[in-house]
Structures are given as C-alpha cells and as structure tokens.
Write a structure and sequence with these properties.
The protein is an alpha/beta fold and about 250 residues long. It contains five helices and 14 strands. About 30% of the residues lie in helices and about 25% in strands. Strand 4 and strand 5 form a beta hairpin. It is elongated. The N and C termini lie far apart (about 145 Å). Keywords: Cell cycle, Cell division, Cell membrane, Membrane, Transmembrane, Transmembrane helix.
C-alpha cells in the first residue's frame, strides 16, 4: 500500500491584516507630515520690537543697516543681530527669536539715562554707573543736566566731583521727587561754587555755595515751597547763608 503525501498548501499573507497595516502606515506618514508642517516656521514676514523705551524701530533698523522694504523671506543674517545690537550704547540685553507665524521678535532691555552731563561742547546721557549711553543725542525726557569740567575716560564720566554730585542728587530726588521737574541744571562753576538752574515754577538761578549736599537741597525745596505758596516769582535765590535771599 502506497501513501501519497498531500501537497503543502501555498502560504499567503492573511488579507485580514493587510488593510489595517496599510492604514496604520498611512496614518504614521500623515502624522509625520503634519508635525513637520506645524514645526516648520513660515517665511519671515515682519519684525516685532518689544521692550522699547526711548529707542524707535527705525533707530534699530538703521543701526542694523536693514532696509524696511526688504523684510521678507529672503532676509538673511538676522542670527547675528543679537551680537551687533549688544554693541549699541543704549542696549543692555537683547534676544532675537523667530516664531512659527513668520515674525522675527527682537526683545530689548534698554539702559536708563539717569542724568545728562554737559562737558565742554558735549552733552552726554549717563546711566546709574556714569556710563555714557549717548553723545549729543538726548532721547530721555526731563533729565537734570550736570555741568562741569568732568574728565571723560572711555565711555565713563570719571572723578570724585561727578561721583559726589550724582550721589547727592540721587538722594535729593528720592526724598523730594518734586525737584526733578523743577531743576533743569546743576552747574559746578570754575570757582568751585554750585549753581542750580530752575525751570519751574519760574526760571531762576540758585546759588548753593561751594558744596552740594542734602542739607542745601532741603533748603532749596523749602524755599521753593514757600515761594510757590506765596505766589512769588524770583530770578535769583541765594542759599549760601543761614536764610534764603531772593530777588
């Protein structure tokens, strides 16, 4: 008796798994394409400036040598803007970032001008460290100007005289903030005397003597308070003696 071995049936993929597998692969590819589209930022369309105080966008675009008419997808070199903007004397910190909507965002922290300083034919703005943030281009409003023959080294106004004056003026403004809007200039004269120039409530010269200190500034505040209350206008006020003398 001869046994006939049955032929092996041909092995074929099970069709019931093919359709779900194809759908899964298609879904993965579609998801990858969507994620790529979402993560890919749009071409640069606009510059956005944040944190500006006295600077204007046109000032910064001029400093960066950027043509406003050429802001668009072809714009290159913006990744180097942070380094260049940090060389601007008015900028303390900067960050340049690009968002997915095609906006190039420039976030700034400006240096704050504390006083103006007049030396010779130069007018500087200085910050709290007496570092120069502008030369003959005052942008901050209502700055009190300190005048005198102060030495300037590099980008800093130096010397014990300017150090003492800024220290006393800082203390004065903190205690009597109303004087900030009344004083236009504090001048250290060649003979060593200090003269304060008022712009409000009337224009006048105030002779302070050979020393600017908190006591003399308190006398100035009290004198102005009295003159304003009595509606008296004076062109000169002399505070060098015990009593205030006005004309």
């Amino acid at each position: 008796m001869v046994d006939n071995t049955p032929e092996n049936s041909e092995k074929r993929p099970n069709r019931k798994y093919m359709v779900p597998l194809a759908l899964f692969v298609s879904g993965v590819i579609a998801l990858a394409l969507i994620l790529h589209w979402v993560k890919s930022p749009k071409p640069i369309q606009k510059l956005v400036f944040e944190g500006l105080e006295v600077l204007k966008p046109t000032d910064l675009m001029g400093f960066l040598e950027v043509d406003p008419e050429k802001i668009g997808p072809e714009m290159v070199g913006w990744k180097d803007w942070e380094k260049k903007l940090l060389t601007h004397p008015r900028i303390r910190k900067v960050r340049v970032s690009r968002d997915r909507e095609g906006f190039l965002v420039i976030t700034l922290q400006e240096k704050v001008a504390e006083f103006g300083v007049h030396v010779g034919d130069m007018l500087y703005e200085i910050d709290e460290n007496r570092e120069i943030i502008s030369q003959n281009q005052v942008l901050a409003e209502s700055l009190i100007v300190l005048s005198g023959d102060f030495p300037v080294t590099g980008n800093v106004v130096q010397g014990t005289q300017i150090e003492d004056i800024t220290k006393e003026m800082r203390k004065t403004i903190l205690s009597y903030p109303a004087l900030r809007t009344r004083i236009s200039e504090v001048s250290l004269e060649d003979d060593g005397d200090v003269v304060v120039y008022l712009k409000s409530p009337f224009r006048a010269r105030v002779f302070m003597g050979d020393k600017l200190d908190f006591y003399s500034m308190r006398k100035l505040y009290a004198s102005l308070a009295y003159l304003e209350t009595e509606n008296i206008k004076a062109s000169t006020i002399d505070l060098r003696g015990e009593d205030a003398v006005y004309h």
